[in-house]
Protein: Esterase
Organism: Chryseolinea serpens
Amino acid sequence: MTIPVSPCSKGLMLLFVLLALHTTAQKISPYVQTTSKLLELPSKVLGETRTIYIHCPKADSTNPNKTYPVLYLMDGESHFDMLAQYADYLSRWDVNVIPQMIIVGIVNSKRTRDLTPTESIINYFGQPDTSKVSWMKPSGGNERFLQFIREELKPYVERHYKTQPYTILAGHSFGGLASIYCLLTHADMFQGYISVSPSLWWDREYVLKLTDQKLKKGAPLNKTLFFSDASEGVSDSSTFHTNLLKFDAVLAAKAMTGLRYQYNYYPKETHMTEPMLAYYDALRFIYKDWKNP
Amino acid sequence: MTIPVSPCSKGLMLLFVLLALHTTAQKISPYVQTTSKLLELPSKVLGETRTIYIHCPKADSTNPNKTYPVLYLMDGESHFDMLAQYADYLSRWDVNVIPQMIIVGIVNSKRTRDLTPTESIINYFGQPDTSKVSWMKPSGGNERFLQFIREELKPYVERHYKTQPYTILAGHSFGGLASIYCLLTHADMFQGYISVSPSLWWDREYVLKLTDQKLKKGAPLNKTLFFSDASEGVSDSSTFHTNLLKFDAVLAAKAMTGLRYQYNYYPKETHMTEPMLAYYDALRFIYKDWKNP
């Protein structure tokens, strides 16, 4: 037996088929993780345009004038996604152990130039690198790079974003060296300093010696500092780890008034895996006593 | 003295001014972190359309046919960004401790229904929750949820992405419970299992008892399992932590052939901060002996 199908019910059937197809079809679209921006910022100080990544917390509709601390991150191309994700996750309402933060990632142009304090050709193992073209050249531009942050980048961020006065400088390796150098020479620029595996070996321990010279015993230094290292110096028998121990000993001996600091050693991590744990621990340390207001 | 300005040089000056303005202007654009997609997948098994986040490694132009292990993550809305960032970072050429992976985040619709193995109204402290409307209701749909993964989600992912046979199931809390339940009842579905703070308290330790029943001493179970807990049960005097210790003891007593497992305890972390460390440690543990081919 066949049921006669009128043109009308045929149309109806087609509609059902189309509807059925529609409801069983998968839809795929881009997934937008976070509210981050890419800024091209021309710098007179550096004579070049710098790429900056800026990550903001999701807007709080109940508090549109809310302001945020700002973390300035060196090696933006390496660790910006990490810090943005850490800051978002740890400040979620159901995690809630640090405040929501703005993350500003500075992408390198000439990394060795910007993140080292002196001109030097002495390599990781204390030997002169006399090759004409070397990854160590040029070097010694950290002073100018900090000037760029102070006079151009920070004012831009403070003009365009809802910032709090509390700011953090964070870096890894040469960036860790630059973070300590900034604390020693321009402590007023930031309140918190994160230095993950600082390259204290640079220029025959220049910054290690500077630490001893600059810090006057018992003097006030109302800052927070987290520093760390991993298997460097153990895996490669360089002075990397002993330099960190010396730096830690200098801080202990100087007993600066108001300085809150923590040194973490991660012997199971490499120079490159360490940032994942160290940046987590650094944020937890800086905001140890923080309570959501 | 005034220098006469011709219309032409006026135009030239204007051009210079415009050029100067152009070179000092900041440019801002969206920052796209990762290559992730949002999929709306209709499920016949569940009778609803499910939202799925899919993260792929950046394409390798030197190896366009490269395939990847796949990690299936429960509570996608909570931990997808984290796992995507961890997988990308740890597989970078200069970090290189795990393979590049595809992360599939399953967003919850009815979380308690999908991630619990039995219907139960016994709450975290072992008391019946008799309220008509409760976050515990409905429950007991984990079997059907695993069927959805097995029959619909995995086939979709394997059809549309360059997958390897190696797959991991990862979850936290109820998701951790579901991960262990899957290992006990459908071990073939995955090769690796991650269970961060599993809610072994569910239904008077149902899954804990099932572990003892299902695992036959010395039987083959060629799987990798990472499980962990944090301050739960210490901070709240529940049986959370003692349940984990019991589970660990059962695994030791059963001495399954081929089972590689690790239990991490994070007493300083909360139920919600723990995933940041546990997912890191889980990936490192699963790929402990991995070498980039």
